[in-house]
What we know:
Blueprint: H1 4-22, H2 25-30, H3 32-38, H4 43-71, H5 73-97, E1 99-101, E2 114-116, H6 121-140, H7 142-153, H8 156-186
Antiparallel strand pairs: 1-2
Amino acid sequence: MFDSGNRLHIINGLCVHIWTQLSGNNAVLYYVTYIMEMAGLAGNVNLIASSIQYVVNVVFALPTILFLDRVGRRLALLFGSTFMMIWLYAIVGTMKTHGHSVPGGFEGSSVVTWTMDTDAPHAKSAVVAFTYLLVATYSFTWALISWCYPPELFPVRLRGKAVSLATSANWAFGFANSYYSPPGYEHLQ
């Protein structure tokens, strides 16, 4: 499996799963309630806005199943990377421009240390919209490609072992996301 002819395929399989986790989307997906709380949403409104994100995730994954073979993996990954970067920068820029740090936490949550200014309702709505756009872009591109691309890289005799190795990278970096994102949110400045 690790001979010179397969080394690049192994690296590609690992990297697509690693960058799926490090794209920033999973840190948003896992902890969307924190982002919605930072945007000023509370209670049931926060839960509903957070839940809509998962509907967006499923709805935008469906066209990918139908059109991915026509578009191609590379183009879809490049498109997804570019637009996910735009949406992440838009979220961060909007929050930075129209928000402030809350030392010690916001409304009893030690993890939520940033909040949007009360006089910026349009900025709060923009953060929610950019979050949905990020999830839609991710679902349309990286979310499914990371699962269908690695098996296509390897010959049948190596496919099971190689895909298992690539998938282990997904789980390892998913664990890292889960472990390091809350302290990251807690130390936003």
